[in-house]
Amino acid sequence: MQQLHWFRYDLRLHDQQALLTSDYSKTLTCVYIIDEQWFQPTLWQTKPLGPFRQVFLQQAVTELSDSLQRIGQRLLIKYGNPLTIIKELVEQLGITRISVQKHPGSFERRQIQQLKAVLNVEWFESETFTLFAEQQLPFPLSDLPASYTPFKKQMDSVCPIAPYAAVNKLPMFPKQLNALTDDTWPSVPAQQHPFQLPFMGGERTGLKQVDYYFDENRLSNYKQTRNGFDGWDFSSKLSPWLALGCQSPRRVFSQLKHFEAQKGANQSTEWFYLELLWREYFQWLAYHFDTRMYHRRGVRDVNPLLSFYSEYYTAWINGRTGCAIVDAAMKQLKNTGWLSNRSRQIVASFLVNEYQVDWRFGAAWFEQQLIDYDAASNWGNWQYLAGVGTDPRGKRIFNMTKQEQTYDPDNEFVSRWNAE
Fold this sequence. Notes:
The protein is of the alpha/beta class. It has helices at about 15-20, 50-70, 80-95, 105-120, 150-155, 205-215, 220-225, 240-245, 250-265, 265-290, 310-315, 325-335, 340-355, 360-370, 375-385, 400-405, 410-420; strands at about 1-5, 25-35, 75-80, 95-100, 120-125.
């Protein structure tokens, strides 16, 4: 059997169910494809992949390549149309089996459907991007609860599957491909900023970050610190590694349980799990609603009564609205590729409620800029804030003055970023 594994959002060797099923393959072709569409403008005046996430992604792919080499394998890196590249490799190598990780994104799912329609091969799709497998859900996906709270209640009795052990041996890479040179990434302009956070893509760095955050009192105080704006320790910062699959959510959960067994559970460890569960809920929303995650009327199919005002949108993305807390956050995002969860809610509320700009332009800007962009969480959260998502209360309107007084009482965050 000649197998091909298409790495997408599983840039790691731990919790890799698909690779663990390759034991009986004669050869294994590991491939990562730099999709040419990531660099093309969208309808929203943005690109799917901005410079901050591209750098993080390149680092993650490079480390994955090194990890595969250490166990006698190789990662073939190609640039172009994934459908064309996969079909060419199947024909060239006589591939009989393709393994890939399932992903809730509409674009990613459509790619697999298109390939299945033209390739006569066996498919293996692993479910390791989510905390739970679909068969573990205590309801059919068609009956997914319409809001988070009933989802949480139904999932209380379900425990995630233990993560798979790290892969340490794989079938050989096809000899006829050894002479191929990996394709190069499009160039990225240098990003230098005095307050840029030290994110580094890759599985090892992601594993180290879990150990770092679960050490001492960082996790134990999460509930008290989680609404911070700036710095490294007030939240776990695991989202970039989770978004690209450098870190498995099931391994994070396993580490959380280990921490609670060693140091005791408290409100902070419970709250941390609830944040993992929020991420999980958005993934299943994306599976259930598919392209409606990107529709103006959202999953609730209601009119958000928003339009597009280019001057407002431009002021918002450049941090020139005149609202100090919003401007500080938007400058941080533009210069670093990062925003805290609290900041994301504040700036989204401002764009939708104060400027009345179509929420999809904000979601697309986040998609381009965020180093931790995750399709389901990003578009699900924007729908939630815009009143077209899963929140039965409708729009989430924030009082900007109160937000600043509550979460930046000493004016440190606003002063730092608006001074820049």
